[in-house]
Specification:
Length: 242
């Protein structure tokens, strides 16, 4: 997954996005995601796929005792250290699949828009469960199965460029999908809703919240934003280790 994020063209295009320039204030889903996060004061936090480190910074500001952000992109981590470093935050270059997940080491594990790059989510969920302390919380935001099942993750347009509909195909066939993002070809993993939620339950998690992200009213006037109400793009989940 790190490959495209470290390529010059993609990295510079990503740097122009609102979420890169403005941090959490530029992420339309942040208002809903923030409501799923637990109280963090005195807690140990792990951020899976931390990118620029905006969520690590938020956790530190909320009083977390320690914050570890991991990401497989060295260029993303360089930005994280520059923009959101210091204090109790540590960054480490590591793929999610290679992270050791020490047992009962964290009170909160979070991940934002990264898990749709992971093929074997069942294995990851098992390791997250083991790494959480009792009553530990797992909060993640993943591209919605309806979005990842979209053909090329693109709208079908009319002759004037208006979005007609969002095509969904091969929904019940999980696996790699080739998509187009920021002018580049990006490979992601499609997972069904059953895989995601039952995968958590089968590991022993208790589901506390399942939320389909919607753009806030204040952003609906922006170009193309109302089309985001026509199909879900992101799925937010809060699960707890009993």
């Amino acid at each position: 997954m790190s490959g495209v994020y470290d390529e010059d063209g993609f990295f510079f295009a990503y740097a122009q996005m609102d979420r890169s320039q403005k941090g959490l204030a530029g992420a339309a889903e942040w208002g809903q995601l923030r409501q799923l996060l637990p109280q963090m004061r005195g807690k140990d936090v792990l951020d899976l796929g931390c990118g620029y480190g905006w969520h690590c910074r938020y956790a530190a500001e909320q009083g977390a005792r320690s914050v570890l952000g991991i990401d497989c992109s060295e260029r993303m981590l360089a930005q994280a250290r520059r923009r959101n470093g210091g204090g109790q935050i540590t960054y480490r270059a590591c793929a999610l699949e290679q992270f050791p997940f020490p047992e009962q080491a964290y009170d909160l594990i979070l991940s934002n828009l990264v898990l749709h790059y992971v093929e074997d989510l069942d294995s990851l969920f098992a390791r997250v469960f083991a790494a959480l302390r009792p009553k530990g919380v797992f909060v993640f935001n993943i591209e919605h199965p309806v979005f990842t099942a979209g053909v090329g993750q693109e709208w079908v347009l009319d002759a004037q460029g208006k979005a007609l509909y969002w095509p969904v195909d091969d929904y019940f066939y999980p696996g790699e999908r080739t998509t187009h993002f920021l002018g580049h070809t990006v490979k992601k993993q499609h997972h069904t809703l059953t895989q995601l939620l039952m995968g958590l339950l089968s590991q022993g998690f208790r589901l506390e919240a399942v939320v389909e992200a919607q753009p806030p009213e204040a952003l609906l006037a922006q170009a193309g934003m109302r089309d985001e109400m026509r199909r879900p793009m992101m799925l937010l989940v809060r699960a707890v280790k009993p």
